[in-house]
Amino acid sequence: MAKSLNVLISGSGIAGSVFAFWLLRAYPLAQITIVERAPSLRLTGASVDIRSSAVDIIKWMGAEAEIRKNSTNEKGMQWVNAKGKPFATLGATGRTDVQSMTSEFEIFRGALGRIFIEPVLDKVDLQFNETVDHYEESAEGVKVTFTNSKQTKTYDMLVAADGYGSRIRGAMLGTHTQEQVHDEGVHVAYFTIKKDLLNGSQFCQWHNEPGGRVTGLRPDPNPEGQCRAMLINVTTKSQKTEKARLNQALAEGNESYMRLMEEMFEDAGWLAPQILKGMRESDDFYCSLFAQTRCPKLQDGQRVVLLGDAGYATPGMGTSLAIMGGYNLAGELLRHNCDIPKVTQAYEELMLPFVKSQQGGAVGEIVMQLLNPQTSRGIWVRDTFMAVLTGLKIDKIAMHVGGWFGFMESKLSLPDYAWPVEGQ
Ligand SMILES: Cc1cc2nc3c(=O)[nH]c(=O)nc-3n(C[C@H](O)[C@H](O)[C@H](O)COP(=O)(O)OP(=O)(O)OC[C@H]3O[C@@H](n4cnc5c(N)ncnc54)[C@H](O)[C@@H]3O)c2cc1C
Ligand SMILES: *[C@@H]1O[C@H](CO)[C@@H](O)[C@H](O)[C@H]1NC(C)=O
Ligand SMILES: *[C@@H]1O[C@H](CO)[C@@H](O)[C@H](O)[C@H]1NC(C)=O
Ligand SMILES: *[C@@H]1O[C@H](CO)[C@@H](O)[C@H](O)[C@H]1NC(C)=O
Ligand SMILES: *[C@@H]1O[C@H](CO)[C@@H](O)[C@H](O)[C@H]1NC(C)=O
Ligand SMILES: *[C@@H]1O[C@H](CO)[C@@H](O)[C@H](O)[C@H]1NC(C)=O
């Protein structure tokens, strides 16, 4: 079984490529097919963090040095007032075990995706413009029919690593795909501005305005001088019309969302006019809703399993969880000698409780609301609090109660998998 293991991965993102990497470490002869809906690798996105046990895993992958070389070198975060004057600073810690809000491994999603996929590219069959249309479980394997080629093929395992909108998740759980998606009340637009509005500063800067509006700039190491911008709108549960308006613009696409941002941020102080201008000139505009996927299970007791955002999207921790999940799933294959139902069950038992502890239910929402308050008074309270906190250097202590910021640095206890020594 192990030698001829034949696996289908849906999605060539972070989760899919980390899993392929470790699967090939466990079974160098495994046949791996990856189907990707997009016409090419999607190597864009803003910066993502690597935290918790994912830090150990990237070291074991031999990827640490390259990730460091490509990191954004952010020194920390600063909150600024409408005139751009910083009143609170939270530094990066320079350690990997206790990280503050800026991770020591802050890297653009595209650079990270490339680092992960490159070592496996010539060892897998990667098909673009392709998706799983439907599947059927049988004793011999999972029979998959593809959307584009219309072909049907049988695999030992189907791994859904196709992001938070995974249709395989819906099929597996027998629900609408949207049912597991939990709105965090945060809408974000990301884009690269082709001018360094931070004037060389290595600090990420945030500015809050009433109405849950946040403008943010993060440094970009590109020597030509650029920066990454974020426009955020935080809505509460009761703001149904506002939410609907944002969601409709999201559904309508880039142009509609950009127009809404121009309207909403027109009077947002600080560098809002320059940021809006930069948005129009950018060529990587991306907007989305911060959402968690919360699943009652990650496997169907047979051969289908959910990996990464498809099973447990968690803003702030999604990339780290995807790395841990990819490593674990391959490790369990090794430990249970490719007995797939046992493997996926063991993977679920390891991941699901940890995911729940990271998703934190209402706590995450409260933290978001607190960090991005709705009213002038709320902003004043938060700003004063932040200023006092950092002024007293309590930010160093605050890292230890990192859970308060929603970034608990607890680790997943990883089993000791007996990885074969490389090159044997
Ligand atoms: C273009 C893009 C930009 C992103 N930008 C950010 C960001 O700025 N900040 C942030 O925190 N997170 C961002 N994310 C999400 C982040 O990458 C994930 O939260 C995290 O890395 C977990 O990765 P994943 O592999 O589970 O999911 P993803 O990284 O979302 O990868 C899923 C992959 O599956 C593909 N796919 C989707 N549907 C199908 C289908 N039906 N069949 C086959 N393939 C499919 C997608 O094209 C993608 O390549 C972005 C994701 C994408 C796709
Ligand atoms: C994918 O589809 C696009 C648009 O239909 C097409 O231009 C491209 O050549 C296709 N790519 C592959 C690899 O099939
Ligand atoms: C990573 O950094 C190296 C050295 O700075 C650079 O040559 C390479 O292009 C970077 N890779 C990515 C994916 O950005
Ligand atoms: C960068 O410099 C410009 C021009 O002096 C100034 O308007 C702007 O506020 C500066 N940006 C930051 C982030 O300090
Ligand atoms: C953004 O959020 C604020 C409140 O959170 C709301 O007042 C505003 O209308 C929202 N914008 C849109 C376009 O919904
Ligand atoms: C939005 O804009 C980006 C960058 O210009 C582009 O890559 C993407 O395809 C656009 N999305 C849509 C849905 O048009």
Automatic annotation (TrEMBL):
The keyword Calcium does not apply. It comes from the Eukaryota. Keywords: FAD, Flavoprotein, Membrane, Oxidoreductase, Transmembrane, Transmembrane helix. It holds the Pfam family FAD_binding_3. Residues 6-334 form the FAD-binding domain. The chain crosses the membrane at residues 7-24. GO terms for molecular function: FAD binding; oxidoreductase activity. The keyword Oxidoreductase applies. InterPro entries: FAD-bd, FAD/NAD-bd_sf, FAD_aromatic-hydroxylase. This is FAD-binding domain-containing protein. It comes from Meristemomyces frigidus.
